[in-house]
Amino acid sequence: MFVASEDYDDVGLKLDDRLIKRPAATFFLRAAGSAPDADVKDGDLLIVDRAEPPSPGRVVVAVVRGELLTRRLPPGWREDDGLEIWGVVTFVVRAP
Questions:
Q1: pLDDT at position 35, please?
Q2: Mean predicted lDDT score pLDDT of the chain
Q3: CA gyration radius for the chain?
Q4: Which of 25, 56, 69, 80 could be disulfide-bonded to 50 (CB atoms 3.0-4.6 Å)?
Q5: Is the Cα torsion angle 76, 79, 81, 87 positive or negative in sign?
Q6: Are residues 56 and 73 in contact, defined by beta-carbon separation less than 8 angstroms?
Q7: Burial code of 54-72, b = ≥16 C-beta within 10 A, e = fewer?
Q8: Phi-psi sector, 85: left (phi>0), alpha (psi -120 to 50), beta
Q9: pTM of the complete model
Q10: 36-52 pLDDT, tens per residue?
Q11: How many angstroms separate the CA atoms of 42 and 18, rounded?
């Protein structure tokens, strides 16, 4: 049950403040196709931070043969593995 307080100031919901840490390095991409290993489905909106450092287990957007693909980095992944990381997916927005 929701109860409003008299002291409550409604300042609105600013998703940018909650979802974007570095605005200058953040991009929105729409997934075209699915990436089951990354739990990304066709049509999802990806919030991608190009300044976020990649690490094993994180979902990334990588360049493979000139195409952007979404993948989860495997355990043991290292930066010198030759995969060109375009950015790290920080949030996935999916319609219900």
A1: 92
A2: 89
A3: 17
A4: 25
A5: positive
A6: yes
A7: beeebbbbbeeeeeebbbb
A8: beta
A9: 0.83
A10: 999 999 999 999 999 99
A11: 24
Select from 60, 56, 48 the least CA-distant residue to 22.
Answer: 48
Name residue 72's amino acid. Answer: R
From 67, 69, 63, 65, select the one nearest 83 (Cα to Cα).
Answer: 63
Q: What is the mean pLDDT of residues 63-81?
A: 91
CA of residue 96 relative to chain centroid, distance? 18
β-pairing, 45-49 with 26-30?
A: antiparallel
The residues with which 40 forms a beta bridge, in sequence order, are 35
**SS3 letters across 12-59:** CCCHHHHHCCCHHHEEEEECCCCEHHHCECCCCEEEEECCCCCCCCCE
- Which tokens in the block code for residue 79? 């930066």
| Residue that wins the pLDDT comparison between 96 and 3 | 96
Amino acid letter, 52? E
